[in-house]
Amino acid sequence: MNALRYKLRRMLSFSRAASRRDRGRLLFVPPLLLAISLFALQKPAIGGLAEDTKLDAGIAAERYALPITPPLDQGDSDLCWVFAALSMLETNYMVRHPGSKIALSRGALQVDSIADRFRRRLRGESVRLEEGGLAVEAIALIRQNGLFDRSDFHDVVDSDPIFPAIEAKVAPYENRASKQKALDEELRANL
User: Fold this and answer.
1) What secondary structure letter does DSSP report for 66?
2) Contact 183/166 with Cβ under 8 angstroms?
3) φ and ψ of 50, to 5 deg
């Protein structure tokens, strides 16, 4: 029963940053679907179907048991989009390679994200540094910079104090090349 509660909490969890209106939408589950989901989670799945599944004639049904990565705490990092994208990639990998384990570094993607936002700002784009992102942005950063294993890189850090610290160090420089050099040094020092 505890495993069932855990799965339900994971299914119905939402970001702390979500508005009340969005929370209501995320938690709306028609009662029939909820009952079906609860029933389905109680049966162990083997090869896509629960052990004792009996299929009626004319009904095609498949139930998949996907490996799920362990829950991780994003803390005050505003990186729900990074956590979601990497969890999806980890699950995809585990489905394609049964029995394998993988843990990708959220900290490395945080560094790439912060660097990308500052570089875009240096190019003159209007970028809010502390704003969240989208999974497609995470995928674009992964394509550009690659990935690290979680054990090969530090965990995520609270990014709130990092943004003003880097801005203060970059601001005094006049030309873009000097600002870029200062940015690179500060990213290494702070992250």
Assistant:
1) -
2) yes
3) -65, 155
Q: Rounding to the nearest 10 degrees, give the CA dihedral for residues 145, 148, 150, 153.
A: -80
How far are the Cα atoms of 46, 111, 136, 153, 190 from residue 124, in angstroms, in the given order?
54, 20, 22, 30, 23
Q: Cα separation of 1 and 145, whole Å?
A: 42
Q: Is residue 109 predicted with pLDDT exceeding 90?
A: yes
Q: DSSP letters along 10-26, please? A: HHH---TT--HHHHHHH
In this structure, how many other beta carbons lie within 10 angstroms of the beta carbon of residue 107? 20
In this predicted model, what pLDDT tens digit does every residue of 2-55 receive, in sequence order?
554 554 455 444 433 343 444 333 334 444 444 444 444 444 444 444 455 555
Residue type, 48: G
Give whole-number Cα distances, 143 to 112, 135, 140, in Å.
11, 12, 5
Q: Which of 80, 82, 104 is nearest to 93 (CA)?
A: 104
Two structure tokens written together for 101: 């384990």
CA 127/CA 110 separation, integer angstroms? 16
